Here is the input.
Amino acid sequence: MRKAIFIFLLVIGCIRGYSQQLVTWAQLSKVKWTNGFVESLNGYYDLPHFSSEIQKLEGTEIQISGFYIPILTEGGVFALSSQPSSMCFFCSGAGPESVIEVNVKGEDKRLKHLRTDKFIEMKGILKLNKLDPDHLMYILQNAELVEIIR
Here is the structure.
């Protein structure tokens, strides 16, 4: 009996260890800004300082839902936003913390046919970008489509 309980707990622990963390836009909004020098731009810019909650998620697999906004026509890189683009996410007071850059792992035919502002769920490895001006401050690497919600 003890052996069965041990195996059960071991299996549950393994499943929990490999499952992705569900992340919300409210969590991603926990960022503060300070002015700092960016060498690649040779100037001073607002730099993000992520909450300890978000810093702990860097390098782990997360899952997040949002609105699909195409960046490249091939479909391998796009943005996921807390707000639909039809609402002009930056116009409504949202900032850079309301958008995540998504780099898709492999090819997924379902992503090639998505329309702008489709609400989808993605999973991938979270990377925090503090200094690279060519990318968004949140990046989802090796991302996979979980579900097209609506």
Strands lie at 21-22, 31-38, 43-50, 61-70, 77-81, 99-104, 119-128, 138-148. Confidence is low (pLDDT under 50) at residues 4-17. The first strand starts at residue 21 and ends at 22.
